[in-house]
Amino acid sequence: MPGSYKLWYAYLRERLELVRNLPVTHSQYDTLNNMFERALVNMHKMPRIWIMFLQSLTEQKLLTRTRRTFDRALCALPVTQHDRIWGPYLVFVIQKGVPIETSLRVYRRYLKYDPSHIEDFIDFLLESSLWQEASERLSGVLNDDQFFSIKGKTKHRLWLELCDLLTMHSAEVSGLNVDAVIRGGIKKFTDQVGRLWTSLADYYIRRKLPEKARDIFEEGMTTVVTVRDFSVIFDAYSQFEESMLAYKMENIDLSDDEEENGEVSTSVKFEKMILRGCWLHDDNDVDMRLTRLEHLMDRRPELANSVLLRQNPHNVEHWHRRVKLFEGNPTRQILTFTEAVRTVDPMKAVGKPHTLWVAFAKLYENHKDLDNARVIFDRAVQVNFKTVDHLASIWCEWAEMELRHKKLDKALALMQRATAVPSVGVKQIVATDMKDSQEPVQMKLHRCLRLWAFYVDLEESLGSLESTRAVYDRILDLKIATPQIIINYAMLLEEHKYFEDAFQIYERGVKIFKYPHVKDIWVTYLSKFVKRYGTIKLERARELFERAVESAPAESVKPLYLQYAKLEEDYGLAKRAMKVYGQATEAVPANEKLSMYELYIARAAEIFGIPKTREIYEQTIQSGLPDKDVKAMCLKYAELEKRLGEIVRARAIYTFASQFADPRTDPDFWNRWHEFEVQHGNEDTFREMLRIKRSVSASYSQVGSLYQNNTPTDDGLICFRLIKYEMMFEFDKFSCATDVLIVCVHVLDPTFF
Sign of torsion, CA 419 425 429 434? Predict the structure, then answer.
């Protein structure tokens, strides 16, 4: 049965077991190989038999026979089963002792069968130090847009491997434009720019082209846009310069020793004699290399700043830092400022672009060149900045420069020029040119409050009263005045004794502004008017105060009423002052009523005496203050009556206030009443106080319980119990009970009654 696969398979397994522990030179291996050859006569389509034979031959180290057998297997088996043969075949060719040429031919044949395993071939080439073909294969992979790595490598990683290969083995690789390859990677992979630049420089260093490498380092530092890449290149550059310097110093020492020992050849001596005096052939150029290294280190801040500016050339702060790097070198500073003002777009600027122009002009000013400083300012005011404030700052700085150099007329002329309203013709031209773009800030400059404030300060200091008033009037006409401008204008007129004109300005201010902005104007206006006229124009002052308090909201009316009352106390009638205080207690917000009533009582006691305060106390208690405030006022009222000897009235006040003091939470009130009865009461009044205390405590407990368990049917019961509670007291019992009854009418259903 020569065609039985199972018999042959079992027989060959037995033969393999027999030779397992025998050396490969034993004769049994020849018998085994013959058995495999006999089996393959009929089993040549069985891949398992081929694999067993090939593994045995591989172990026997029969290179030629093994290679030929692998080829026979590939020829005998169908293509669909070749992958079972190629695995052992590749394991065989990477073994030690297999010629490199054989391995290369096998791998190339395998790539025709399965090109996706080209990475394995590249790894084999790298292990075999075949740098030329490895670089060619790797570059081919990178140029193939349809390539997919079976090892999960990205194009980025493969590109870095190619760059490392080209730079590390530059002498062994030819035929590839290394410079173009690495520069292509620099453009394509922006996250490894620093490493790629250093790889390109390293390539030229290995090719013994140090000057070219130095050019590459310089180009890299002037093109990278991240500080990390710059640091990588700069560190590599500095290490290169240090290594070159150390190498040169070692060579000088060796050449000196050779000259002392007489080991220098005649040709070398002749060459040195011919090229003597030429700096390019000066062996002792250590000083030049040391200077070059120091210059590189000194340039680091400038180069780092250039990197930041390449990230965003419109960053104003980075330009200022760049100028500071050249302190002591006015020429470089001027060139830097010139480049900055040409580069920075005010619409895209990060920071305040006008500060560049100001600093540029101050540079000329510090060097006593006012003419050029004026030229810079003149160009700056023509720039279309993003905001009007930037342009106004330049005008102000220009005027301040003129003031510092005692050019007062020029400063005023500048302000007049800056605040001039554009003519109709200019506006039409700008509107035609502008179309859909934004209106230039020069057209809005005449309405800039900062510029006008500076201008009016100049006029007050240098000009006349008429010119200053003209500037203030223009500010008011343009409707850009602030409350402070109004106050300043009025105070200027007061200083020059134009009081009525000052009051007219205040009047214009209170008409222009509303609360809360007009508050300071009113306070200043009223105080100045009262101080000026006093009793002379009292009725006019009263009218002003009435207007002020009518227009003021509740939260701002208190200081006006106090000022009004002070006027009446000083120049008017005491009764009118009390009336003003009374109006104030009604106008102020709820959180200020108590303090206002206290002030009202204090002023009434001082002016009319203590008995007058009784009416105010009763008015305060019935004004609707919160319970805690009413209780506090009742205690003060009771103390007042006690000082006046009105013990019965004081006791009635305590009785009334007891309804607001829960004995469980407010023991202070009951302690004070207790002390009062001990000092001024008798046994009956003391018992009455205790009875009221028990009643109040029970009422608070019962009311709290009722409200916690309240149902619609219990509302009437609660109300009537409250009425009964109110009528237990003698002080104003019917009015309180009536109030509770009115509440019940609004709360309960009409059918309840």
Answer: positive
Whether the Cβ atoms of residue 621 and residue 634 lie closer than 8 Å to each other: yes
Report the distance separating Cα 491 and Cα 509, nearest Å: 13
CB atoms within 10 A of CB 147: 15
* Cβ–Cβ < 8 Å for 158, 141: yes
Provide CB contacts within 8 A for 252, sequence distance 6+: 283, 284, 286
Instruction: Look at residues 594, 606, 602, 600 and name the one whose alpha carbon lies nearest to residue 578.
Output: 600
The verdict on whether omega for the bond into residue 611 sits within 30 degrees of 0, i.e. cis, is: no
Sequence-distant contacts of 691-698: CB under 8 A, at least 24 apart: 692/655, 692/658, 692/728, 692/729, 693/658, 693/663, 695/725, 695/728, 696/658, 696/659, 696/661, 696/662, 696/663, 697/662, 697/663, 697/664
Segment 391-410, tens digit of pLDDT? 999 999 999 999 998 888 89
Considering only CA atoms, which of 623, 622, 685 is closest in space to residue 654? 685
Sign of CA dihedral 387, 390, 392, 395: negative
Place of tokens 């009556």: 641
Would you say the C-alpha torsion 642, 645, 651, 652 has a positive or negative sign? negative
According to the 3-state scheme, what is the secondary structure of 164-194? Answer: HHHHHCCCCCCCCCHHHHHHHHHHHCHHHHH
Q: Which of 209-213, 226-230, 370-374, 682-686 has the weakest average pLDDT?
A: 682-686
Ordered alpha helix ranges (H), 77-99: 83-93
- 676-679 long-range contacts (CB < 8 A, ≥24 apart) are 676/638, 676/642, 676/650, 676/651, 677/651
Minimum mean pLDDT among 118-127, 363-372, 680-689: which range? 680-689
